[in-house]
């Protein structure tokens, strides 16, 4: 039986400020198998972890990430929901790698370059990953499929996944054509006819987002989906272990 892995969406973002070292540490404590995080670039070319192209939603400041230097963006407090954590800052990708280096976590690095086309982002991410010796544990994904193709052209050994959220035709065949190893669809895309079977027949891994309800998690376990991306890795862990126990006793 293929056991579904638990990936923490922007870290354990149900319990700590998203895409922060605090959320990643919480995911480690909650026994996630992997962590999904988002990367943008600052004005001075630093890789910073934040989901949106602007800082507006997660902080009290305003403006585009690309218009802040790294030193400026580090000063922002990105904790709006979890007072117990006090002031929390945006980490660099290197800081996140350092935190996770001595774990066995898979790290899903999502390149957020579909709106702002950050120059040389792919080269910078690959260089840092190599410098940290994490090549075997990183999976890259993006809504910008050109970016995934660029990564493959720079290093054919990298593992990649196409992110998408709408009802495209024959995504499994598209993934095979472009030699990516996985599809990372919005959860509701799994409903399309034969999608799961077609992915499995073509050896394409499926890792849907964002899966926060128990019944959704159970459905993914039943279909032996490769990984689920959730804000609540502890709930995911509980569901997966309970499902494995139940099936083994049948």
User: Could you state the order of secondary-structure elements as H and E?
Assistant: EHEEHHEHEHEHEHEHEH
Question: Which homologous superfamily in CATH is the superfamily?
Answer: Phosphatidylinositol (PI) phosphodiesterase
Number of domains: 1
Distance between the termini: 13 Å
Q: State the secondary-structure class.
A: alpha/beta
| Unreliable residue runs | none
Q: Can you count the helices?
A: 9
Q: What is the overall pLDDT average?
A: 97
* Rg (CA only): 18 Å
Structural features:
alpha/beta, TIM Barrel, nine-stranded mixed beta sheet, about 250 residues, 9 strands, about 15% strand
Topology overview:
Blueprint: E1 5-9, H1 21-29, E2 34-41, E3 47-49, H2 70-73, H3 93-100, E4 106-111, H4 121-131, E5 138-142, H5 145-154, E6 159-164, H6 171-177, E7 182-185, H7 195-201, E8 205-206, H8 214-222, E9 227-230, H9 233-248
Parallel strand pairs: 1-2, 1-9, 2-4, 4-5, 5-6, 6-7, 7-8
Antiparallel strand pairs: 2-3
How would you describe this protein?
There is one protein chain. The protein is α/β, with parallel strands linked by helices and 250 residues long. It has a single domain, classed as Phosphatidylinositol (PI) phosphodiesterase (TIM Barrel). 32% of the residues lie in helices and 17% in strands. It has nine helices and nine strands. It has helices spanning 21-29, 70-73, 93-100, 121-131, 145-154, 171-177, 195-201, 214-222, 233-248; strands spanning 5-9, 34-41, 47-49, 106-111, 138-142, 159-164, 182-185, 205-206, 227-230. Strands 1, 2, 3, 4, 5, 6, 7, 8 and 9 form a nine-stranded mixed sheet that branches. Strand 1 (5-9), helix 1 (21-29) and strand 2 (34-41) form a beta-alpha-beta unit. Helix 1 runs parallel beside helix 3 (93-100) and helix 8 packs across helix 9 (233-248). It is globular. It starts with a strand and ends with a helix. The model has no long low-confidence stretch (mean pLDDT 97).
